[in-house]
Every structure is written in structure tokens, then in C-alpha cells.
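Ticket reopened. Same input as before:
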Amino acid sequence: MSKRRFGGDEVAHIITFLFAALIIAVTIGLVWQLWLHSAAARQKFGFSFLASKLWNPVTDEFGAVPFIYGTIITSFLALLISVPLGVGAAIYLSELAPTKVSNILTFLIELLAAVPSVIFGLLAIFTLIPLMRDYIEPFLKNVLGFLPLFSGRAYGIGYLTAAAILGVMTFPFIISVSREALMAVPREQREAALALGATRWESTFDAVLPFARLGIIGSVFLALARALGETMAVTMVIGNDPSVHASLFAPGYTIAAVIANEFSEATGDVYLASLVELGLVLFALTIVINGLAQMMIVLTTRKGSRKG
Amino acid sequence: MKKLFAAGLTVLGTAVLAIPAVAADTINGAGATFPAPIYQKWFEEYKASHPSVQINYQPIGSGGGIAQLQKGTVDFGASDMPMTDDQIKQTPVKPLHFPTVMGAVVLSYNIPGVTAKLKFSPEAIAGMYLGTIQKWSDAKIKADNPGVNLPDKEIEIVHRSDGSGTTFVFVDYLSKVSPEWKSKVGANTSVAWPVGLGGKGNDGVEGLIKQTPNSIGYVELIYAVNNKMAFADVKNAAGKFVTPSFESVTAAAANSKEMPPDFRVSITNAPGAGSYPISTFTWLLVPSEIKDAAKKKDITDFLAWMLTTGQNDAQGLSYAPLPKAVVSRVQAQIKMVK
Amino acid sequence: MSKGTSFRNRRRHAVNNVMLTVCGLCALLTVSTLFVVLGFLVYNGISSVNIDFFTRLPLAPGQEGGGMANAIVGSAMIVVVATVIGLPVGFFAGIYLAEFGGKTFAFLVRYTADLLNGIPSIVIGIFAWTVIVVPMHHFSALAGSVALSLMLIPIVARNTEQFLLEVPVAMREGSLALGATKWRTIASVIVPAARKGIMTGMILGVARISGETAPLLFTALNNQFWSTGVSEPTASLPVMIFTHAVAPYDDWHRQAWAAGLVLLTLVLVANILARTVISRGASLPR
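Engineering reply: fixed in the latest deploy. New output:
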């Protein structure tokens, strides 16, 4: 009798253990495959792959710089758009709105996170690109055209448009995590500030925000990690140009977009391996940023290890 | 609860998995977007008359067709650029080139306010794509288009972002007519473009042209026609401005050098007054050895159909059918598929 | 002196009002994005969501009409297979983490699951290509499903773990006190108690993967006809939206909008149902 019971628990333990171990095995397998299939490029270029601006399938010379540049530029610009708006919205939702309203609006924001990337891309092609090309970019060019950032032809397709759509896609991450970070700040902080005669804004800005700082920064890293890996919406509006341009109006490329576009057409080992190596670079980038994000979020939100 | 959930999932899963009970052999091919409109029409027609054979063709670009053929993930490839000797060496099973139709790579443009048909010389085209000619009002363009009110706007160049046989045909032509292009950029399915936006596939390029004012790009004739976009006459080797059409493509093929036995030939910049200078054959790349007997029969049957019935569809879609002399030689090659 | 103070006070109150309004506007702007997206999809797509769309196959370019029946069925097939693979793995791994895990190994599993969750979907597509497409010499729905299941597993695992851990200790102890074994306790007491949260996470996970495009680009590829099985290239709704949106044909654009509307409706409905009806206030995964 007791032997049978012991057997049942053992079996359950083993089965669940195997499935859990599968996760580790698959992830190791993934890294291993990325390493393996990028061998041809790593052997040929070594570390100069990360420093080279050249992407030339004719001469089999490949470099990662245009894609790393494009990935970082579009992601940072996206954050420039979504962080102020997102933190502002989070402040409203956690401090100022009545609970019911806050819950409904938060619910709606979380629905925004569920919208597939390709749908954002669809919208970007037919609504954002004309908007950029006909109104926003010419406006920026008129006002700020003396800066190299805003010079050159305004196609409506390029870094700026990609950054804009990425910004919209990252709203939900900034908002929901920041809101929780703000809500995790003890009530006493606010009450103390208000008792001392602070306005609602002052209480928020001076007493609450500093405590939620880490969580908010965590949300920014989270959003950054998502933006770096975002593929479809960016591919549809970035312009597919593997070079580095100073102007934000110019077409460019990101790591995810070049893999999406060129992977099935890469003839020859070095070409394919270069694309896989780009995937490896992106993978490394997102691990680091995600790791930082997790750390900060764990440190401030109410519930311990919440997966972001 | 868990059991119910699992049971429901199993039922749904079985139902969905049972749906593809379509009793058809599936042949998978991938490659050039250049001939995709006629290939997809062919495969639709072929399926209608041969319901048990379903040929799925995915237009992912000539580079893709060659790459996937090399990796063995497709049953056949398609390309507007003949495979190089190196590429053939890297393919496990030696591929045979089967020409299917001929077509024209045209310069499609979108200039608001300009309704006249523009004429371009080789120097103008090379200049635009090298970035040395930057505005529509440039003297070189105006010289060939007297009387057309060309705006003083910047030319938005569009090219391919993917590995493309159409690109190859275009830059092969540019390399022949412009020494500067040849030395600076060269010819392949994918090149380092000096300027421009990249579109994916002939579709993507035409899509960009349509949406971007003052733009120009190179696409297969049918893409410009289907989308009612303007396309230009180009000056050929004999100095005449020729309109792209199946007639001028046929003339280019007729005036070109003799077709070699393996059918790999370039007919760009062909001599002759009526030749359109940016013309090309396009090929199906079929392995010379197909182990699966049923697949082999399906593919060879299709090739035979393509060379006879299929050719009738070409003109309607602005492609040129294969010259009769070539057809009989290609039919002979079908026997080489073991 | 009182003049100075009241000026400062007035300014403080002005700043207060301005900033509160700004924050309110931020919230309005960000929330309205959802409605802007829906609005455009409905406006451009609703007239094309007709019986043809659901029942006809796509036509060769240049011909008007046709539909995306094969893509709808294809997506369903790919997602179902991905769910069949991924759900059990995630579920049982989650049970392990909550109930059996030793300190270090459980930490490793959690860390890896979070890692897997954060990997860009295009990189997962590369992995599926190397381990399924290349050895099989075939693009296939299966490869696409495997890629999607890799995205589903960490979501389901962490979510399951979270809700199992929330079950009150009293329930576990009560069951054990009555003489049930650990696994009986898990199966008959703990999991049923946590089922709402677990199911919510599963539904949200499945909704998420059904909208993914990148991992399918070079695994399931695409198909102009009905797919003839899991080991064949298969059309899917997200990939169709992509190819049709970047093409030049107006007819294809129309269909892309319709497909987008259908896809988004399905995803949103799943999300809304899961978050309101099923979970009823449980705190939810992102």
C-alpha cells in the first residue's frame, strides 16, 4: 500500500521534471544551433563582423553595423515617444483616476498589447506612412532641417516611421509595469506629502515617483527588449536599406527585418551564416536587456518574481 | 475540468487535422517573382485539369529559389538568373534549366502630373540608379523627353531588397551599358545599391512605386500593367527607343546569340532595331534526378503541358512565348530528368 | 510677503492642474490607440469580410476576388498543433516549478523559461528552420507549429506556476492530512482550485501565438491552395496579411484589411473572454 503511494509521487515528480528539463534542453539546443549555423561567418570575419558596415552578397562580405545601428536607433526613438506618454498615463492611472476608471483603462491598454505585430504593420503602411511623408516629416524638415538628423529626402518610409510604430507598440509595457510600480509605493508616502500641503502633482512627483523609479526603469528596459526584437511592423516600414544613414528620414534596416527578408534567399554558406550570426547578436542583446529589466522589476513591484 | 479541456482539444485537433483529406500529390516549388503571375495561373489551370496534382509555388525571389533548391527543401526552383557554375556545384543534385517564357523588365514610374510615356537612355537609367542623376528635371532625362513637363523633384529610386533574378537582369543590362556601373556595383541577384528604397519581390517594388510620388523602379511588365502604372520606353543598342511588349521581347530573343545546350543565356542589350534591351528568359530549375517516381511523373507531365498548352497563356499576361526552335529543344531536355 | 506666497501657491496649483491634465491626456492618447487600430480595420475591412472571404481560395495576382479560406484553416491547423505540443509541456513544467522543484534546478528552469519568453520570434523561427525544415527537406506546418509551441511553453509554464502557488496552504495541508498522496493532492485539489487562472493563461498564450507572423515566414512558408497536411507548406492568416499588404494590388489590400479585422477580432475576443469571464479578478500575466 505505502509502496504504491510512493510510486505515484515518484512518477509524477519524474514526469513533471522531464517536461521542465525539456525547457532547458530546448533553450540550450537553440543557442547551440545558432552557434553552429553561424560558424561560416564567424570563421571568415571574426569580430570584424561587428565592426563592418558592408553588406554585399555579391562579394560575400557581410557586416553587422547597419543592422545594429538601425535596431538601436529605432528602439531608442521609440522609447523617446512611448516613455513620456506611458509614464504620464501610468501616473494618471495609478494616482489620479478613480479606481473603476483606472481598471477599465488598464484593461484596454492590456488589450493593446495583444494586437499582433503584423496588424500594426498593416496600419503603418496605409495610414502612418502617408501621414509621415505628407505632414510630419516635411514639418520636421522645415523646423529642424538644419540638423543632420532631419535632413534629406522624406520618403515616409524609414527610421522615424519604424520608431513611431514601435513607440505605439511599446505603450502597454511601459504603462502596466510603471503603474504597478507606482501602486506598490506605500500609501504613507502620498499621505505624508499631502498632509504637508503638497499638491497632488507634487506628492506624485516628489514623494511617489522616486520610490517607483526602479520599477519604471525596469519597464523601460522591458519595452526596449520588445522593441529590439520586433519584426513584422518594422519590416513593413523601414525601407530595407542595409546602410547607415544619419538622417532619421532615411530608409534603413534592423536585425530582425533583414533576417525576415533575406533568410529564405541566402545562397551560399557565408550569407546564411551571417544572417544566423545576426540572430545570435540580437539574441545576446535581448538577454542582457531582459535580464536588467527583470532585476529592476523584481526589486520594486509588490509580487516577487513576476514574469514580464 | 482538465480532462474536459484535453478532450475538447483532441476533438478539435483531430477535426482540423482531418480536413486536409484532399487527396492530392503536392509538389512544392519556390523562386522568382518575375514570372509568378503566369506560373500561378498555370498551376491553377493545371490543377483544374489534373485534380490529383497540386503544385504550390511560392514567389520568394530567384535567390530564394536557388537557395531552397540547394538545401533540398523544395521540389523545384525558379529563377530569372541562370545559376552560375559555382552555384550548380553547390547543389547536391545537378539542376536542369527549363526556360518557360520570356519577359521584359520595365522601368515603372509614378510622377504626379506626368501622363506622357517617358523615354530613357541607358546613361539616364544608370545615372539615376548610381545616384548621379538626382532630379527628374535633369538635363539628361529632359534631352530624351522634349515637351514633357518634368518636375524639379528628387527621384525616389526603388529597387529590390531580396535576392532577385529581376535585379540580375536589370543590373546585367546596366553592367553592359555603363562601365561605371560595372566597376562600382556589378551584377548579381543582390547588389550593394548606391541609393534607394528596397521592396520585397516584384510586388513589393510596384507597391512602393504606387505609394511613393516621384518614384521609379524596375519590375516585370505585367506588374506595371496590372496596376495601371506608367512604364518607359528604353533606347536599345541600335539607338531606337523601344516600348516593352511581348513583340519587342521576342525580337530580342530572335536577335540574340544562339541558345546554348544548357539553356543558360542572357539576352539583355540585344542587337536589332526592334529589340527591347532589358529582356530575359526565365527558368524552372528542376533536379536532374528525382527519386520519388510519382513526383517525377507529375513534374515531367507538367513540363510537357507547359511547353504546349501553357504557352498559350503567355501573351495574355504580356510575357512572350518561347521561340518554336527553343521549345523542341526543351522538350528533349525533359527526358534528361531521371 | 503674503503676495509672494500666494503667487507661488497659485503657480503651484497651476502646475498641478497642467500636469494632471497632461497625464490625463497621455492616458487618453494611449488608450485611444486601441480604438484607432480597430477603427481603421473596421472602416477598411468590414465590407470585404464576406462569405467569399471565408470560403474561396486566393486567386493569382491580377484577378479580382477570391478569399482566404486556406489561410484561416491553415492558421487553425498550425495553432492547434502548436497547442497540442506546447500546452502539456508548459502545464507540467509549471506543476514541477510550483510543487516539486528543488531550489537550484527550479531556478534554472524559471530563468530559462523567462529567457525563452524574451527571445525574438524571428530567432525562434531560425531554430525551427534548422531542426525541422532542413532535416525534413520540407517547409511544413509542423515546423511552424514547433516554433509557435516554443513561444507558448514559457507563457503557460510560468502562468501555471504562479496560480498553483496562489492556492492557499490550508487546502494542501487539508488534503495531505486526509491521507492523499502529493500527486493526488495536486491533481484533485490544487489544480482544480487554480484552474481559472491557469486556463486564462493558456487562452491568452494561444491567442498570442495565433497572431505571430515572423516564426512562420520560413517554416510554414505559404500555400496558394489548401494545405495537404502538417508536413506541407501551409497558408496562415498573419503571413497572408503580410504578403497582401506589401503587394501593389488594390484587391489584395482590401483582403489584407479583411484578414486583419478577422484576426484581430478573434484575438481580442479571446483576450476579453479570458480576462473577464474566466479569471474574475485574478491578477494576470502580461
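Confidence is low (pLDDT under 50) at residues 302-308 of chain A. Residues 2-37 of chain A form the longest helix (36 residues). Please confirm and we'll close it.
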